[in-house]
């Protein structure tokens, strides 16, 4: 374990060093600040905006868990996750196609329409899961009451 | 003065500690956000990143070859596969990276934030790993759609940061190895599935898998013919372009709309013993050959096509320079751009499948595909398949 850890850390530092060397030798110094700003902004946007939103959604899901049933809420969350990821990978194409490109063979999809369809499916799956699960919860509640 | 700073920092810590504790409690979700989930997702993310790194390195080696390392020309679809994999695993890395970060997010609020010098260094290396990973994936996606909003060059930055990422990843694995090994030696009190706040551990991994699979399914059709019917979200589409083939750069973008169709166009082949100009009629008069070869772009899209023209070996022989032993220098009519001049190592120049193509899919080459003549060779990135040829120089 000690040897493996030492090797991994030493190799990692070597690779990191080579990467830093490439940044310093292959990239003009005028570009360094832009790279640092992008890396810093990526951390801030993730840790300060994106992750808190996801945590908030999770807390909201927990609040309605007992009313709608654990299963339904979990499926709805999964569907939301798929929708969010597909949106994230399509936003660049969506924005870039509004900016225009002199090459007619790039950005040939209808990305707005595609995302609309994705979200229709995602929301339909989530709604169906929540409804089914809510019905099961109600039935169980009634069964305990009449017992 | 020292007493004042001490008291002030104690006051700040007093206020911050419960805040950080509250954030950690809100963000935590054991056993879903646990070392075990992190190891499971991290392993998949590690595979995706290593695939991206290896295929990216291969792509850079093809574009900037090392003199002592000959690159393979077979199988002809090799680059199509490696670069397709590069973009596909980069796309799959989006949900995997976000999921990986989600499982460790509560640790951001650990208290005290720094325990020792070693701990400070470890947290700094994680900041580098997280920031660079997010930037690599983001600028990769932006490059696919040619949206250059970032204030630096894509190619050099994506390459340099890839080394930083893999290095920081190896350091991270070294630091966390005891945790990983503990998860691998499954404790009996750690069942494979367990419920968290709402999702179970398997439910979470399944949802992330579904997100990664749907992202790949809806984009990989620009590379994988079998998935073409599902291609709804990728920037390119198979069959869409002049002569049914996409293009990376149009004649107008390259500034060759006039020079490419000039009636006095000739292809100059310069050899150590002299030089010969070939008109388009001269090229048509040479023996013609056909090859089925893919155009495989660095941006990950690819498509196979049928090319017809003069074999490079036949052209060089006609110019009196059979069997080159040094890279050919190939020039385009295109004046600007990093790939206006390219080099072709001898193993490609002497390959019987390498053509100076005059026709594509049964018709005269469209000007956006490189009319009057272009290079097409097996196993090379699209940017090296020089269009609008002007001059080929044999140095040895």
Write up this protein.
- Chain B: Pfam families: Oxidored_molyb (PF00174).
- The complex is a heterodimer of chains A (147) and B (396).
- Chain A has 147 residues and is mainly α.
- In chain A, 88% of the residues lie in helices and 0% in strands.
- Chain A contains 5 helices and no strands.
- The model of chain A has no long low-confidence stretch (mean pLDDT 96).
- Chain B is of the alpha+beta class and 396 residues long.
- Helix content of chain B is 45%, strand content 14%.
- Chain B has 10 helices and 10 strands.
- In chain B, a hairpin with a 5-residue loop joins strand 3 and strand 4 (302-311).
- The longest helix of chain B has 31 residues, at 154-184.
- In chain B, 46% of the residues are buried.
Number of domains of chain A: 1
Q: Based on Cα principal axes, name the global outline of chain B.
A: elongated
Report the order of strands and helices of chain A. HHHHH
Approximately what portion of the residues of chain A adopt beta-strand conformation? under 5%
Number of helices of chain B: 10
Strand order, sheet with most strands of chain B: 2-1-10-5-6
What is the SS-derived class of chain A? mainly alpha
Number of strands of chain B: 10
How many structural domains are formed by the residues of chain B? 2
How do the strands and helices of this protein lay out in sequence?
The complex is a heterodimer of chains A (147) and B (396).
Chain A lengths: L1 H25 L2 H35 L1 H4 L1 H30 L11 H36 L1
Helix pairs in contact in A: 4-5
Chain B lengths: L1 H26 L7 H29 L14 H27 L12 H28 L9 H31 L16 H17 L33 H4 L12 E5 L2 E5 L1 H6 L2 E9 L5 E10 H7 L9 E5 L8 E4 L1 H4 L5 E6 L2 E2 L9 E3 L12 E5 L3
Parallel strand pairs in B: 1-10
Antiparallel strand pairs in B: 1-2, 3-4, 4-7, 5-6, 5-10, 7-8, 7-9
Helix pairs in contact in B: 2-3, 2-5, 3-4, 3-6, 4-5
